[in-house]
């Protein structure tokens, strides 16, 4: 693998070449398929994943089986960050929602590079702070904002991950990720569709007007975006 092949993951692309060269022998490119589970709650994590495309949801699963998404990870991030913070597992399920490729590396090998105190370490710690912002702001969003605002915020984040206007996600999946009834998602999606902000049919979503979608979203999208920009402005 060359550095150009990993450019789609922003963390790997930001590494100095000499650090990336140390990782190359241990990085493996894999395809991520829809519905694939990368990490199960409380199970030992074997690999850390750096997505190139697609979208992975970090999902909290309750005892009764209900789910709520706590964070979205795309090409800006990494799956398995808890292993670098002293844990060998996560309490969340990491589920692929939109397919794509990723670079993966065994946890022990990445830890060796992380423990050098190199630029990789700094970037991953900054990303951890950004991820915490996303998780905590999402928690506030779930309790404070209307479903249509939350749906708009969520679609903006998905759009950022996939970098294309059209993608496939069913109402069942969206409802499960936002922790609401499907009827609530149907109503919210209809409002956005009537305003000609999105087009939605049989699980196919098209963003028609990104600026209008931003206006329909709550402030949480911008708070999270600004924190990512603040943390990485001089570091990527």
TrEMBL record:
Pfam families xrefs: HTH_Crp_2 (PF13545)
Domain named Cyclic nucleotide-binding: residues: 11-139
SMART domains the UniProt entry points to: cNMP
Keywords, comma-separated and alphabetical: DNA-binding, Transcription, Transcription regulation
One GO location term (cellular component): cytosol
InterPro entries: cNMP-bd_dom (IPR000595), cNMP-bd_dom_sf (IPR018490), Env_Response_Regulators (IPR050397), HTH_CRP (IPR012318), RmlC-like_jellyroll (IPR014710), WH_DNA-bd_sf (IPR036390)
Cited CDD domains: CAP_ED (cd00038)
MF (Gene Ontology): DNA binding; DNA-binding transcription factor activity
Top-level lineage group: Bacteria
The protein, known as: Transcriptional regulator, Crp/Fnr family
Keyword presence, Nucleotidyltransferase: no
